[in-house]
């Protein structure tokens, strides 16, 4: 964005400071060229808002990915819980069977 300033006033100040009119004009031309690409407050504000929007979208997408992974982990945990319950039940049946066999033998 272009920065606007009074080039005539700056030229006069530079000439009062001892520069020739050509030197002052060259200095001002260099300043104008340098200021051509300076962002304004509005440019920075818009860029910041755009970044905020991108961050919100990315955070939402990350949340969705985490929810999917959490759901997958919950399913796996439920399956493991079922397997452990079945194994524990089988162990109890075997233990009760062994106890019954020992009681009969004694």
Task: Briefly characterize the structure.
The chain has helices at residues 7-16, 21-35, 41-105.
Can you put this structure into words, describing what you see?
This protein has 106 residues and is mainly alpha-helical. It has 2 domains: 38 residues, no CATH class; 68 residues. It is rod-shaped, with a radius of gyration of 39 Å. It starts with 6 loop residues before the first helix and ends with a helix. The model has no long low-confidence stretch (mean pLDDT 90).
Overall 3D shape = rod-shaped
Give a short account of the largest sheet.
Answer: none
Summarize the amount of helix as a percent range.
Answer: over 70%
| Tally of strands | 0
Please state roughly what percent of the residues sit in beta strands, choosing from under 5%, 5-15%, 15-25%, 25-35%, 35-45% or over 45%.
under 5%
Q: How many separate helices?
A: 3
> Which value, in Å, is the CA radius of gyration?
39 Å
């Amino acid at each position: 964005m272009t920065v606007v300033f009074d080039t005539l006033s700056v030229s006069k100040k530079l000439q009062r400071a001892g520069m020739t009119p050509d030197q002052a004009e060259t200095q001002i031309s260099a300043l104008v060229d340098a200021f051509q690409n300076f962002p304004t407050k509005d440019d920075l504000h818009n860029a910041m808002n755009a970044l905020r929007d991108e961050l919100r979208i990315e955070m939402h997408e990350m949340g969705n990915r985490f929810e999917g992974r959490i759901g997958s982990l919950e399913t796996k945990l439920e399956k493991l819980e079922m397997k452990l319950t079945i194994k524990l039940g089988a162990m109890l049946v075997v233990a009760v069977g062994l106890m019954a066999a020992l009681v009969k033998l004694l």
